[in-house]
Amino acid sequence: MDESRRTFLGGVAGAGAYLLLGEAAAQDKPAAAPAQPAGTIANEAVKAEKHASMQYHSERPLTGSVAAHDHDFDVTPNERMFVRNNLLTPDLDAAQHRVTVKGLVDRELSFSVEDLKQRFPVVTLQGMLECAGSGRTNFQPRASGTAWGQTGGMGCPKWTGVRVADVLKAAGLKSGAAHVAGQGGDPGMIATAAPVIRSVPIAKSMDENTLLAWDMNGVPLPRVHGFPLRLVVPGWVGSASTKWVHTLTVLDAPFKGTYMTGSYVTPKFAIEPGQKMPPDTVSTQSWPVKSMITFPAQNARVKGAERITVRGRAWVGEGSIARVEISVDEGVTWQRARLAARGDPYAWRTFTFEYQPQRFGYLTFLARAWDERGNAQPMVSAWNPLGYFWNGVHRVGVLVEA
Amino acid sequence: MKLELGVALGLAASLAAAQAPDKLVSGPGATLTENKCKICHELEHIRRTPLSRGEWADNLKNMRERGAPMTDEEMAVILDYLAAYYGRDPAPPAAPDTLAGGGDPVARLLDAHACSGCHTLDQRVVGPSFREVAQRYASDAGAAARLAAKVRSGGQGAWGQVPMPPAPALSDDELLTLIGWVLSRK
Hints:
heterodimer, A: alpha+beta, Sulfite Oxidase, Chain A, domain 2, 3 domains, five-stranded mixed sheet, B: 2 domains
């Protein structure tokens, strides 16, 4: 017992407290991180279910993704799906969980996951989810928000659930129904944390590919991906696909909350890079056409005599991919890649391109996708203050060795 | 022997680095900025991208809408600090945080150990006000020791489910000063 502690105890606490504090102090271990709020899952438990190639960009909230060359799958495995929480990961009980449909409906309804399975047709589809800020670190100058890598922040798993349209029809949409707001059960660090609520226009909510899903690639949703129930709004910014969803509210207008007006917006017209958000904004919805090269990896070494099969994925938020082109001369000329057959409407598509290196040394591949409406990926996407919708041409360099 | 000493010193240095508190560049308003922002997220969120003053103003407005407990006056101090030290233009040299603590030893401790991010004398912010704490424990002879242990190791449940992070860097003398001061606020 050192002198300062003796002084402390003599000065403030009585003799009874002396023992108590001595005990408490002896048991103290230097705590590295704040305590885990009740009813939430620690990041370590989330990471234990993830692949070693996941790169984490922040702990509070937890965000992480894999690089392009770790994304070389036709269907994204759960352990490689990107993580983007706004708040904490809740520990929910599937047996107790309900989703309530309310607002502009004829009858308010509430379902357990089991109820949904019994009552409505169950569908499985592959669908693209991508954070609005995916690829944000490509923007120059840097833009505010999660520092997703050049290609991180997206994935395309298979989802099993029921159509939101079927659930809304069961509740009966009233006239004037314009948006459906999803709210999830993720708590914040503090009681004043605003709930994460995003709303989706009725047309997209009623699309047959928009789901209330409980399975991801044939197994129950991992907890960080929304267990036991989430919205899947494929092709749209990830924030539309509310995780841990417990309420769907049918509204006559877009939901007015910070996650609709302060975040997930872009300037209506182009602005000078590095400037603040102008008054005229639009809410982010579907992703523009995009692609990435998933093989070979950036800075890979390849043997000169071998033909290289460049492989990648292409997608667009609404519509379909028309073609993907590859350039081996920094975009001066382009050649068509082979595109796999179209699968589910919102699934990404694999492309391949056979290339025989003509010389030893450094070689680059650029991939550019086009949609069926004639939109192509730009070389550089328009700068915006929150760094959304990066869809610039992806470039991978390899070294061809003897 | 030399090698062992070197290893030991290296280990000590890496331990110190691992336990070093997350700090921003010192300047007027740095402490308030740290104490408000790190309630919910790590300070890397500030360091990762320099922003213009207008962008920081948008960011702070956004954070308050999302629930960050900041008064208008606190937000103005934080904006001035971030715009200067984490702006898109070159930053001024680091300077003492003249806005933290002042001459009062208790206020200095409350700022230095991030207490003031969540607690004030009279108003409930994230945690209870100091007056509420003093009143609850006014006739509890064992309260001082229990509170001291809780402040040092972190606590949860007495005032709600929001956990209070630990403050392991507080010395016994500092704990004495703080707990004595808090319990006499009744």
